[in-house]
Amino acid sequence: MYQKGSDRLLLYPHAAARTQYRVYEGTKEIFTNAFAYAGNLETVILPASLAAFGESAFYGCKKLKSVGVPEGVTTLSPYLFADCPALATVSLPQSLQSFEATAFSGDTLKTVYYTGTAAAYKALVGSAIPSSVKVIPSHVHNMSVREVKKATCGATGVSTQTCACSLAVSVITPKTGNHTFGQWTVVKEPSFTAGGVNERSCSVCQKVEQVSVPRLTALPDGEAFFVKDDENKLIYVYPNVTVNMLTAGIAGLSTVSGRDMVPCGGDTLLATGMVAFIPIDPDADPETVQLADPYLIVVQGDLDGDGVIGAADARLALRNSVELDALDDAQTAAAKVGGADIVSATEARLILRASVELEDPAEWLAALNKAA
């Protein structure tokens, strides 16, 4: 039994039938009387993380045969292993700094392994352990390792390391970090207006890894990127469409100008409020003077005319919905996303979602295509 939320072992069930017990790795303290009178316990495996014992922690364990105190423990508390008549072999670490004389009282020790020098042992133990006990100083552990729990990509493992001197410690083995990922699956298809998302998962720990897929730089064959509204003299286009693309898509289109009526270069991204001049008779002789109709460019979701759908556009739509801001014809058309008849908070929300790629503006153009 452990103290909730701590690394302190409070109590072992004294009547337990098991003869061996491994204290969980990560435990730092074994509390006073925790294993006292555990009548069937013969072997205990202590964790490498252990730092302290409480008084009489293993008092009266009649069948306990051997014990290894892990490196890092600095004190053997009073009556720690007292009245353990079967205890014959002990391994003590060089880290010990103090040793209570009653730690092994009433025991019949035969052999003590110590990783420090003989002089250090004598200074530490004094007469607390009878001179008749065989002492093997400067002991070097020769550890054999047994895997208790295999480490995986998502979870640590546990191994037990034992030495012939009676030292047995449990050690946490780190996560391998080597995930067993499956094939990439499509979560969101990329489009001309927004990137996509692919993901894969580890079959062992279920870790999910996602990658962004860039938006398409060219439309699939046969897919329209604009809707021409001849009645209202509007041309609705996808975001990220250039002047050259529109010129290639509309017969006779020769010029696209900005709001300032200055002609735009071919690589210029189209934005709401630009003007496209379309000849009234596209079949007329190109050498003659042509009459042209001005069509307003509308990039749905782009209200501020920068060609990009952002939070500022959503704010303009929202303010217009409560009559705090007026919009011109092109801006109003850009705000009526998803086939809306009016500009409301719903449209502002859709524009905001599109600004962070939670909404695909291509669907708005598809709705206009259906309506047309």
Description of the molecule:
With 372 residues, this protein is of the alpha/beta class. The protein has 3 domains: 1-176, Leucine-rich repeat, LRR (right-handed beta-alpha superhelix), CATH 3.80.10; 179-217; 226-371, no CATH class. 15% of the residues lie in helices and 24% in strands. It is built from 6 helices and 22 strands. The strands form 6 sheets. It has a 5-stranded mixed beta sheet with strand order 2-4-14-13-12, with no helix packed on it. A 5-stranded mixed beta sheet has the order 18-19-22-21-20, with helices on both faces. It has a 4-stranded parallel beta sheet with strand order 6-8-10-11, with no helix packed on it. Helix 3 runs antiparallel to helix 5 (345-355). The mean pLDDT is 88.
